Amino acid sequence: MLSKKNKEALFNPLSKDNPVLVQILGICSALAVTASLEPAIVMGISVICVLAFSNVIISFLRKTIPTNIRIIVQLVVVAALVIIVQQILIAYNYDVSKQLSVFIGLIITNCILMGRLEAFAMHNSPWPSFLDGIGNGLGYTIVLLIVSFFRELLGSGTLFGFQVIPDWCYRHGYENNGLMILAPMALITVGCIIWFHRAHNKELQED
Amino acid sequence: MNKNSNTYQILYAAVMVLLVGSVLALIYMALKPKQNENIANDTRKQILSALHIGAPDDSKVKETYEKYIIQDLLVDSEGNIIDSTKNVAFDVDMKKNVKLAERQLPVMKCRMDDGSVKYVLPMYGAGLWGPIWGYVAMNDDGTTIYGANFSHEGETPGLGARIADQDFQDKFVDKHLFVDGQFKGVVVLKKGQKSTTGAEVVDALTGATITSLGVSAMLEDCLTPYEAFLQKLQGANSAPSAEAPVVETIENETNDNQPE
């Protein structure tokens, strides 16, 4: 079940081979949904699901897919999966589907999906591919959470929508940093995280 | 079989598209009734929320809605009621109700628990990424906003999407559409700015300028056609106090007449 190779597929993406910090995939959506914690979590969970299942499907089909049109096949699978998830949510959990609205579309364009399908699922059997999908999804979610924690705390003074900076700070001249809510600060925060991450992982440092 | 032959590739693509297409179509057809019901219930919830009636659990939304909404109206730009069949306002598709010349003006008349009457006016406009819409509940004095609810299709989460937050919507409460008897509407402007027309101002959302402007434009576009209707409400509201003594005198007269 969890051989050494499978464990690597599951746990490496959490840190040593993190999709955002090391593979530099999925940056675009990391900018869009990290202004506060809640959408970041929802986005993380949906990416984990779609990534795991599209990995499995592509892995099942991998021996039949013609090389020339493999990207198209991958896109169709991902898009179909995303639409199915969306339709089911609208029918059975309308409130969640409303929260997800724009993210669902963003999942299709998330580079992590195409990247993992192309790099892993096309060459591996379904079970490791599933683990790889879960691992990369988790790695992505962790980064989203860290970024959105700082952006929401410094930008809005709240966490999960609850005010955490006490009122007396505001009375004594503290102001929320509006810049944190804007997209450029997400890039800078990701940059800082990459810096810390590399500083602590000698094997990732390049000369 | 050669995986890279043209025939194989074309066949593969054709079969895949057919398969995926039919599966999606099937799922869509199968889930459609349930989805429509959810969407209608969600609209009811938004209308109730504009009236500060908390969202009851999903099975009771329709019941609650029908308890409070006592009448659906369509009015014209002169403020006359042209239709009042059941659900006539609820069924107006605001998406197709854009052209000013042929626009229908739906109004939902509601009676609250304390007996006061409110009028809910639907709004529809454009945000940054897609449509935004909302419901503004008016007091029966025809000028004070009782509550508002805004929704959006795909505004940026954490930025424009905050128009759907209670904090933002509560800022509209008790704003006046008429200033010194003149219809001014209500505008959304960056904090600290003053309206040039003298309209009452709601602070825009930081970092969501376009969506805030969209809300402002939507309010102007959708509230202005109701000017005559709202004026009639003001008239009707002040009338009873003027009429009441008249009624009394008539009664007095009849009372006086009876002995004779």
Could you characterize what this model shows?
- The complex is a heterodimer of chains A (207) and B (260).
- Chain A has one domain.
- Chain A is 69% helix and 2% strand.
- Chain A is built from 9 helices and 2 strands.
- In chain A, α3 (37-61) packs antiparallel against α7.
- By secondary structure, chain B is an alpha+beta fold.
- Chain B has a domain at 68-243.
- In chain B, 40% of the residues lie in helices and 22% in strands.
- In chain B, α1 (6-50) crosses α2 (61-68).
- Chain B is globular, with a radius of gyration of 25 Å.
- The N and C termini of chain B lie far apart (113 Å).
- Mean pLDDT of chain B is 84; it is low at 241-260.
- The interface between A and B is medium-sized, with 34 and 30 residues.
Order of helices and strands of chain A: HHHHHHHEEHH
Q: Name the average pLDDT of chain B.
A: 84
| Helix content range of chain B | 40-55%
Order of helix and strand elements from N to C terminus of chain B: HHEEEEEEHEEEEHH
Global morphology of chain A:
globular
Q: Helix coverage percent of residues of chain A?
A: 55-70%
**Helix/strand class of chain B:** alpha+beta
Summed up, the helix count of chain B is: 5
Radius of gyration from the alpha-carbon trace of chain A, in angstroms: 19 Å
Largest sheet report of chain B: 6 strands, antiparallel
Report strand % of chain B. Answer: 15-25%
Strand arrangement across the biggest beta sheet of chain A: 1-2
Rounded Rg of chain B: 25 Å
Distance between the first and last residues' Cα of chain B: 113 Å
Number of helices of chain A: 9
Largest interface: A-B, 34 and 30 residues
Query: Structural class given helices, strands, pairing of chain A?
Result: mainly alpha
Oligomer: heterodimer
Q: State the end-to-end distance of chain A.
A: 38 Å
Note poorly predicted spans of chain A.
Answer: none
Brief characterization of the structure:
With 207 residues, chain A is mainly alpha-helical. Chain A is built from 9 helices and 2 strands; from the N terminus they run αααααααββαα. The chains are: A mainly alpha (207), B alpha+beta (260).
